Amino acid sequence: MKIGILTSGGDCPGLNAVIRGAVLQGVIEHDTEFVGFKWGWKGVVEEDFVPLVRHDVRGLARQGGTILHSSRTNPFEGEGGGPENIQRMMDRNGIDALMVIGGEGTLTAARRLWDEGGIKVIGVPKTIDNDLAATDYSFGFDTAVEIATEAIDRLRTTADSHGRCMVLEVMGRHVGWIALHSGIAGGAHAILIPEHPQSIEQIAEWVESVRDRGRAPLVVVAEGFMLDGMTEAYSDKGLDAFNRPRLGGIAEQLAPMIEAATGIESRATVLGHIQRGGAPTGYDRVLATRLGIHAVEAAYDGAWGEMVTLRGTEIERVSIAEATGGLNVVPESRYAEAKIFFG
């Protein structure tokens, strides 16, 4: 079998570990031939790929980013786009199947290629937001939480020095898992997530309560958080290739509002792409490697249109349709646990 691997959408730590796990499993156990499509779906529609052999993946588990590069290209657009053109490209090059490593947008596109064109795809979930349904955790999330937690620890010392309120913005378009975990780990005094809009009055009340106890308030906010009355998440950066708003900047909106409501000097920090960079944590290296191994086995079992997933501590399979049919939102019970520490 000849399998094409691609990494698409936002990058995250652990992508290279998936590639390494898949190539080693395929070569050692099945004598599989691999190619890597460059720049995600862009490489697929432009027929731009390179061979992937065992030598190419040496030591990759500890390396951040992706050796194949990534983009937010839509595989249904362009001269070489669409299932018929992609299948012809695969036939020309003897490629039997695609291993698609990506998040919500990438896997939705993969599902459409399977549903509408019968393109043989196996999905591997990738998102630092941890927002994909049907998997308990996705690789990259643990690393992002560690980076955000360190940022909180660092902001706390400068906040204490000046008696300021610090507002840290982390990633999380639709869900607040990074904000929740890093906020709890770093001892944040308020955690604002997309699943639970709040009023500026409530936020100010929490901040003032912290100030009254002689502490410097620290607020963690997910980029997709909305204040009461907002109809969509804050964005002033246009749209991406899948026509979704590019988010970022809600912390810079909140900080002056908090200062105006409380009189406490407030500063915003937008962590941004730092959360995506650097080497993956040990947990993410192991999870990504396991997913790569099991993705190859799924291909040999003919589990087309399915995605490998983490359930508890075991790697299982689900349909990509199930994985992309809903969001892995923060449950009310988990947010209630965190709210005990607000204010």
Task: Count every beta strand, where a strand is a DSSP E run of 2 or more residues.
Answer: 11
Q: Characterize the biggest β-sheet.
A: 7 strands, mixed
Helix % is: 25-40%
CATH architecture of the largest domain: 3-Layer(aba) Sandwich
Number of domains: 2
How many DSSP helices?
Answer: 11
Assembly state (oligomeric): single chain
* CATH fold topology of the largest domain: Rossmann fold
List the secondary-structure elements in sequence, H or E.
EHEHEHEHEHEHEHEHEHEEHH
* Sequence stretches where pLDDT stays below 50 over 5 or more residues: none
CATH class of the largest domain: Alpha Beta
Subunit structure: Homodimer or homotetramer.
Subcellular location: Cytoplasm
Active site: 129
Binding site for ATP: 10, 72-73, 103-106
